[in-house]
Amino acid sequence: MANPGYGKRTAPGQLPRTAHDFADLPPREAAIAAYLDRLPDGADISVKTLAKELSYGQCALRTALNRIQDAGHLRRGREHLTAKSGTSQWITRTWFSRTARDDTWWARFTRGDVPEEEPDRARPTRSRAHILLAALGRTTPALSLSQADCVTLAPLLTPWFERGATDEQINRALTAGLPTPVHSPAALIRTRLRDKLPPEPLPTPAHTPESPPSRPPSACWNAPAAAPGPPGGLPGGVCGACRGERAPPAPRRPSADAVRTHVAQIRAAMSQQPREGTPV
Description:
Elements (H helix, E strand, L loop, with lengths): L7 E3 L16 H11 L9 H7 L4 H13 L3 E9 L5 E9 L6 H8 L17 H12 L7 H7 L4 H5 L4 H9 L9 H11 L60 H16 L9
Parallel strand pairs: 1-3
Antiparallel strand pairs: 2-3
């Protein structure tokens, strides 16, 4: 048992206990929830104490308790108390409900706004997964499911929610490209929930790599070459050598004798032209 004010507190207005109270939870979470349900009020249900009593480690128990809370069976919060002596302190309260409740109900209850309901009038609050599966038949009649089907298939949606899938994404995965006819809606949905499970999201990089330094437009982008060229003369930013093109042959320089001969011919031609003022 926990110290006064720190143990389990049972929420009011629960339905009678049945063998299917926690069928909307995965097997591990359902087993832990059933154990908590049978503990008396005031029992210590902290992670450390549960790890001593159950065959799960503290890390697994923290995850399981979070999932039980997300399903509406558990709520933890802090409460301010003032003693008769005038001293005040904050304590942690833990409420447990065999009948799943939504966030609105829990918020009202922890504020003291919800009256204690009679067990025969209390109605279970369906989980997000149960609501999504039950709604399939309204939009896609071929996928109409029974209450038992929704209870059985709901745990398969937990990893989808944990990986950030939205209700719209799940609906598309379940309803797109259906065979005609659908002989067993429950079997088809079970297969798709397992086979189309999205991958776990990649971790966000700590920083974005810097972009490589830019080159002027007249230089080849191929780093080993880095050949300069006129603007517009590098298609795709790559020089002709990097594209495998052959360089044009270099012009041949004339020999010295050829130059002298060419100059002599020019002088001879010039000497034969008439000069101004000279009679012909």
